[in-house]
Every structure is written in structure tokens, then in C-alpha cells.
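User: Sequence in, structure out. Go.
Assistant: Echoing your sequence, followed by the C-alpha cells.
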Amino acid sequence: FWPTWSGLEVQDDALWDYFLSDYRIEELCRNGGVQPYHVYPAWVHLRKGFWQWNEVNLMVAAPGFNRALQRLGRWRDEGRLWIPTVAEWMDHTLAVKNVQFIQTGAREGIITNPTEKVIHGISLGLNDTEIRISGKKVERKTVGKQQRCWIDLEAGESVNVSW
């Protein structure tokens, strides 16, 4: 049983260009957002906006939905957006849940990936301070007063973190 408590219903095809515009996708990425969407045929009624009938009565994706998918695909291809399958998302979520953090001092600690798989994109965020991670390529950005950074951890790897 997988309940869906809300959903995107786009009853005007042009609204796909609003809901999944480049601006909104940029804001999602810039603010470190996560937006899970899933689509399955049992729920996709004609009035929901995902598909339509064409001139020979074949079911086809709505033009606006296709444009939205093309935009999302471009962002994915540029490496700015991760579009996982449900299985990939769940595997990542479970792997991240197993990451261990042990504080070893007032402003330092050790992060460990105890799993047998690489975990991409482990992220940290702290207000008004710089995060340092020894021996790792660290991607980072500042959002407001918060510094955010993210790293990949190899299977079984531990890294020292200070702030």
C-alpha cells in the first residue's frame, strides 16, 4: 500500500510550462530542494493533464507534459538534477540512513559509510561556519547564512570533518 496524499493535476496544458519552468527548477536546485514525483497509469485520468487523445484516437503524452520532461531531461543531462527511479531513490535513502557521524571534539567529527556501496551526495549544512573535510573533493555553496557541502563516500570509507 502506497498512499498518495497529493498530486500534480495540470488541467491546462500550458501550465506545465509554469509548474516545471526553468525558473522553478533552478529555485528547487538553488535551495537544495527535493521534490518527489511519481506517475502511474492507474491514477492518470484524462483531466489530470498527462495525456490526451490524438487525431486517430491514440493515447499520447500531452505536449506540455512532453516539454516539461524535455526540460527535466536537459537539467539531468547537465548534471544539475538527479532523476532516479523509485528503486534508486529508496536505495539511496536507505544507504544515507546508515551513514554514521561520531563527534570527536568540540568542532570535529568522523563520518563513516558502513555500507558496501558508494554513496553519492552526502550533504552537510551549518550556519555561519566553514565545513572542512580532509582528503575529499568537496562541492560547496552558501545559501543565506548556511554553508552547504556535499561529498561522495566510498564503501567503508571514513572521513574527518571539522567546522
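User: And one key feature?
Assistant: The first helix runs from residue 16 to 19.
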